[in-house]
Specification:
This protein is mostly beta strands and about 120 residues long. It contains no helices and eleven strands. Strands 2, 4, 5, 6, 9, 10 and 11 form a seven-stranded mixed sheet that branches. It has a four-stranded antiparallel sheet with strand order 1-3-8-7, with no helix packed on it.
Length: about 120
């Protein structure tokens, strides 16, 4: 089983910070790309950030300069540091893990609410 487990969501005021973590299961399959998506109420799921095994990163324009994705390959974990949060960042955030030879697996989702 390759179910990633997320942690770190919550309620924060505008301008605040949160850090999401996603621990992927140890598996016979090697982890390739890892990423974070989000789905806001009434909107489609969108890619927030992704990171390759060699630490090449990609960000949605809306989060560039505010969010940072990183990974710890020894712990099979991906992180999303979110700073200067805005109300429009409110969404359920999902981690996505791509295993070579297996496919992709999704975390359970973490609610992030930015509100005063």
């Amino acid at each position: 089983q390759v179910q990633p487990v997320e942690s770190g969501g919550g309620l924060v005021q505008p301008g605040g910070s949160l850090r999401l973590s996603c621990a992927a299961s140890r598996s016979i399959f090697v982890i390739n790309d890892m990423g974070w998506y989000r789905r806001a109420p009434g909107k489609q799921r969108e890619l927030v950030a992704s990171i390759t095994r060699s630490d090449s990163t990609n960000y949605a324009d809306s989060v560039k300069g505010r969010f940072t994705i990183s990974r710890d390959n020894a712990r099979n974990t991906v992180y999303l540091q979110m700073n200067s949060l805005k109300p429009e960042d409110t969404a359920v955030y999902y981690c996505n893990v791509h295993y070579i030879g297996y496919g992709e697996a999704w975390g359970q989702g973490s609610q992030v609410t930015v509100s005063s």
